[in-house]
Protein: Beta-glucosidase
Amino acid sequence: MPLDPAIESGDRSHTLAPVESVAQISTLLLDTDPTLDPALARTARQAAAEGVVLLRNDGTLPLEGHRVAVFGRVQIDWFAVGYGSGGDVKVPYIWNLLAGLRDAGIQVDGELADRYASWAATHRPTFTATWGQWPHHFPEMPISAGDVAAAALRADTAVVAIGRAAGEARESVLEPGSYYLTADERALLDAVTDAFAHTVVVLDAGNVMDLSWLADYDRRIGAVLYAWQGGMEGARAVAGVLAGELAPSGKLTDTIARRYTDYPSAPNFGHPDANEYVEDVFVGYRYFETFAPERVLFPFGYGLGYTTFAVTVVDQEKDAASLRLTVEVTNTGSRAGKEVVQVYAGGPDGALGKPARALVAFAKTALLQPGERERLELTVRRDHLASYDDGGATGHRSCWVLEPGEYPVFVGTDVRSAAQVAAFHVADLHVVRRLTEVAAPVVPFERLTLGREVDGSAVIAREPVPTATALRRDRITAGLPREITPTGDRGIGLDAVGSGAASLDEFIAQLSDDELALLARGDVTMHSPLGAPGNAGVLGGVSESLRAKGVPPITTTDGPSGLRLSAYASLLPSGTALASTWNTDLVRELAALHGEEMLRKGSDVLLSPGMNIHRDPLCGRNFEYFSEDPVVTGSIAAAVVGGVQSVGVSACPKHFAANNQETNRTRNDSRVSERALREIYLRGFEICIREAKPKTLMTSYNQINGVWAHYHHDLVTTVLRDEWGYEGVVITDWWMEDAVDPDFPALRDNAYRVRAQVDVLMPGGVKTEAGPQSYADDTILESLAADDGLTRGELQRTAGNVLRLALALKPVVAARTLEG
Ligand code: BGC
Structure:
């Protein structure tokens, strides 16, 4: 959401001040804010470098010892992050590529660099457009073929930098300058590849963009590097990789297909009202590896280094439940590097169509010197190979099942080249877990599944998606919590609960209905006076009376790439860059340092990680999210949450769930089978929640099968809390859509939301005639008093969720208050 008028007007000029040297940065840090931590910047650089994916290299890289001509205005106007709440950080500096290359000791052609610098100085990017209308690219500096040829007399290698950005409320689009190259970029590539024997292309972009043009240049482009958006240190990290000072070891977390229309989501993406997730569980590589391997340009998991590795399974231990693989990775080349070992599994044909391969485990080596080796242990749990039967095709509706047959296990360094090393054999159908139907589609559509030709080859088949049969009203009524008998104020403060002198129930029993209702709403606006200036909102102790009982005000801030506050803060690598490292230890370390910055800046809850699945390459917020794969997504998210929370503050994974496009994001309906939800869109959240136990979680704006996420009892109560054991707070994404509960007409808006255990409306102001900033809202209290309305037990349950967070964060808030 827009935060202040400057951001609303799209003014991002503060993010575009390039730096020239490390020395200048020390000065900038001191000038701007001495609380910025150089260790965080160093780790951010390391992470940005590890996230760079080298897609092609014929030996052109690294650049050390070469004379280099750098083309493309992005060398100056580097895109360090995408747009919106995930990018609006008041950043103290941003390295650009030119400065980074010079810093790395690369001999850059000065004449050309000067020309770009002076042109860029007089052609500043314009950000005058309003929220959601930011530029996808910046127009290129005109340069003649003659001038390019002249540069080729002074330098032996060309680097061409191409930049793209998208963001919140700003999808990538199928146009030149967004998904496609512009005519000017084509002309530049033509001229450069004509004149230079060696050309490197650097893609500075948050989303996957079209790369079909690479074929037109064939070997005339010697190296291609997908840099993603690495934050304030990103360009310097990329320069370090180009120079050979840092080893590339990133791997794609998305498939790069030949054409946009090859993606199975393409016909059903971007519709404003509803999108049918026809591809079902066949998202990304699950589709391509099963049905269309020839449509892949660069496979999922792929990425080169400057050295070579031998990857050998040296030991296997298997029992009925798991397979433990010991994989030895040896650096067989002549430079240092890291490698990622990836384990995939397939499944037998059966009643449920299964993808040919699905990632089940991965691990990354340390930096290995030439000749050095490391053994990695990877475990595959047989139960994790199960499929979810949402229609009863196996005879076991609403169960995770292992159908009989062989489940091959593959090990390798990308999805395509991984080779079979083992298999699980399942003799008879095995029910792994019995659940209940949740969030099933109500509008019928056909989904894709696996068929077989006579010769056994895979072919796309279609089947009707199973539709909802469960009775929501009955489920909710059966699960209503008991009421804690109100006692009135007995003088028990929250501290007494913290020290064990009183129970949480005793504390809650004292709260009036007004106080209970206040705990279910954040402070009225963003930029709450109760928190650090520029915060995204405050919850918990939002009234005098709650604060008097010891409930602290809890400050939330965006977000995934850095703290969005009025103060300066570090701009970190964005989600896709982080995930492309496949290095959970490094991500955790970075997140812990980020947590330390939260402590210094007064943020208690970081509205991060963004972890929706990259269903389609055009989704504007893909830069904030991690991958098309739920295991990568869940593991990286768990690392972020683990790191942030290790210092005592809270992370807040978002957006739960199926928030896969920005177009009409507050109203559109993600129509998706329960199977695809459970296997793909919820799976990452499940991994993150089970592993890292976030204290806070944010719902999404969209509807899931006709129900807004912030009202979704099935998702938030049945799945998140009852099945996964989540005990934290659930907050809305900023504001929500009004609606009446279809099964309980006495509940609407906030009452409808609390029933789902979406505990807190953020921020708390509601849309009334008095305007959007008003706190006047009686929907909770009215519903409490109504027949068949919200029960006090439910409101107390939500208060309990909020108060447990308050108890956990109390020491952090108290320390800040003391300092303040
Ligand atoms: C975004 C969230 C963000 C919130 C607060 C919303 O528009 O979707 O991701 O955390 O605003 O800025």
User: Anything to note?
Assistant: The chain has a mean pLDDT of 95. The two ends are 28 Å apart (CA to CA). Residues 1, 85, 168, 536, 558-559, 607, 654, 733-734 surround beta-D-glucopyranose (CB under 6 Å).
